[in-house]
Amino acid sequence: MAVNSLTQADLRALTDARPERGRVLSVFLNLDPTEFASAPARATAINSVLNEAEHAIGEVDGLEHDELLSLREDLERIRGELNRDGLAADGTRGVAIYACGLAGLFEVLQLPQPVQTQAVIERTPFVRPLLQSGHGKRWGVLLVNRRSARLFRGGASGLQETDRIEDDVHRQHMQGGWSQARYQRSVDKEAEDHLKHVADVIFDTHKHQPFDALLVGAPEETVSDMEAVLHPYLRERIKGHVQLDVEHSSPEDVQRVAGAAIERHQEAYEQELLSRLDENLGRNLRAASGFDDVLAALNQARVEILVVSDGLQEPGSRDPLTGMLGRENSGFASGAAGEPVDNLVEAAIEKTIEQSAEILVVRDPETLVEHGGIAALLRF
After folding, report:
1. Which residues pair with 317 in a beta bridge?
2. pLDDT of the residue at 180
3. Cα angle at 89 between 214 and 8, to 5 degrees?
4. In Å, what is the CA distance from 87 to each residue of 26, 82, 92, 152, 200?
5. Predicted local distance difference test score (pLDDT) of residue 177
6. Closest CA to 259 of 218, 230, 224, 217
7. Measured on CA atoms in the order 333, 334, 337, 342, is the torsion positive or negative?
8. Is the dihedral of CA 29, 35, 39, 43 positive or negative?
9. Distance (Å, rounded) from C-alpha 144 to C-alpha 216?
């Protein structure tokens, strides 16, 4: 199975899964090769998370007998998936499995970035780890010179080489005179055709598996020529440049240099959003702070970017008629009795994904402490 590049549509499909009966078992396994390179280390992690899932099943309240049996069957199916050969192949650094037999749900995602190993049982798929790992942003790294090109995709924690392009471009010679001038024009034309070929290949890749952001690594004399022939959709996604030998850099070299550049960009972007949030809240302009205000904005589809603290949990309720969210035991305008929501933060994340809005999971819990762990930038 190939490594999955998650899209907004993939996340939305997961959040749309809301079984009428039973529970969803979500299991995550970290396969970071720096920690779990050996088969015994992976086996220990697998046994640990399966034991955690089995214990969680025993702790679930309010299930009928057939629902409990179905959960145990889901666990056995997940056990078989985690113990199959080749689980950590093809650049896989994490696995997420979602199972609910009563709803016909069994989704296996092989991820290019690590996730925290854990098992969660809720009424809906637990998607927050996918956001925490940065899977929402799909990075491309293009290394190119006048003869060769290599394309990688992934993120800060994992990049996989997906394409290598070699074109027959002759080298310069020192004969001199008119002959050299004609020869040089021929070489330049071949190099120009090579860059156009690279641009066509990467745009075709983008059409089938889009990039959200792009890094370019090329000799100084080639950078502007390469960017000039890229499709505008790709040119506007360029976030920076990396210094790497196109033909001789190892995958480890690319991961080290490009991964660090991606991490710096993500940190800068996070700080920019948090600064914008503080500024807007200070001016009382298109921002919300705390559960009550954020839920009100979500219920009105006004959220542009939801910002939540990693690990935050809060019980809540959902209006069964309108899907609106509220605090625990909230009253709703429809007059309907609210359905209990085990994890209001996860429900808010699901609604944010449904509205095609962005989500930022902040790892430092102190960052949002004055906002109760949750805030939002608003569209209007």
Report:
1. 326, 340
2. 54
3. 45
4. 17, 7, 8, 21, 33
5. 46
6. 217
7. negative
8. negative
9. 8
Q: Which CATH class is domain 286-378?
A: alpha beta
The CATH number of 139-266 is 3.30.420.60
Could you tell me which of 300, 298, 301, 302 has the C-alpha nearest to residue 346? 298
Q: If you search the block for the tokens 């080290």, which residue do you land on? A: 256
Out of 3.30.960.10, 3.40.190.10, 3.30.460.80, 3.10.310.30, the CATH code matching 8-132 is 3.30.960.10
pTM above 0.85, yes or no: no
Across the range 307-324, mean pLDDT stands at 92
What's the distance, CA 75 to chain centroid? 25
Sheet holding 303-309: strands in order across?
287-289, 374-378, 303-309, 358-362
Looking at the chain, the domain(s) classified CATH 3.30.420.60 span 139-266
Residue 375 contacts residue 287 (beta carbons within 8 Å): yes
Q: For residue 193, how many C-alpha atoms fall within 13 Å in the half-sphere facing its CB?
A: 11
Residue 278's identity, in one-letter code, is: D
Domain with CATH 3.30.960.10 in the chain: 8-132
